[in-house]
Design goal:
The protein is an alpha+beta fold. It has three helices and seven strands, in the order βββααββαββ. β4 and β5 form a beta hairpin. The longest helix has 19 residues. The two termini are about 30 Å apart.
Length: about 170
């Protein structure tokens, strides 16, 4: 059972603990037996749940030195992904749950997966925030930032799941 804190439930394991089948990361070369950190967090879809989750995850990542010098980029990308999942995916409905999985491999970096219960979206249909009238829009920069900050970004399950890697 996980620990509850600030509207989120945390499951954390570190080196030496056997990974469950749920912690395998298909499509990535992260070996569950070589991970120095595995975290699974579920949070109620409320904006106020995002900051404490980001803080807790980043404390764990920084403490293990998984990605020296790159923590700020990871933090901002995680903040944006969770905010998008809460606001757009779960429509800020506190009865809905957003899930975040984090894996840290000293050789391969950090893998972050954020899942939301929404209907999804087409990431290719998001207009560029660097062109025309979108330059002055007050939204639409989150996915752009994530793509700029992370080394690899993929959307799965009709856009309800984002996978981000920072090496």
């Amino acid at each position: 059972m996980g620990r509850e804190r600030n509207g989120a439930t945390y499951w954390c394991s570190s080196m030496g603990i056997e990974a469950s089948s749920e912690e395998h990361f298909p499509g990535y070369d992260f070996d569950p037996e070589k991970l120095s950190l595995r975290v699974r967090i579920t949070l109620a879809a409320q904006r106020e749940s995002v900051d404490p989750v980001v803080s807790q995850v980043m404390d764990s990542i920084r403490g293990l030195n998984c990605v020296n010098g790159k923590a700020d980029a990871i933090e901002l990308a995680l903040q944006e992904a969770l905010a998008n999942a809460v606001v757009h995916g779960a429509k800020e409905d506190p009865s809905k749950i957003v899930e975040c999985l984090v894996a840290c491999d000293d050789e391969r970096g950090v893998l972050i997966i954020v899942r939301d219960p929404g209907e999804g979206f087409d990431p290719g249909a998001i207009p560029s925030c660097t062109m025309g009238e979108n330059l002055y829009s007050n939204h639409g920069r989150g996915i752009f930032l994530i793509n700029q900050l992370m080394d690899e970004v993929k959307f799965h399950k009709n856009g309800t799941e984002i996978h981000m890697v920072k090496r």
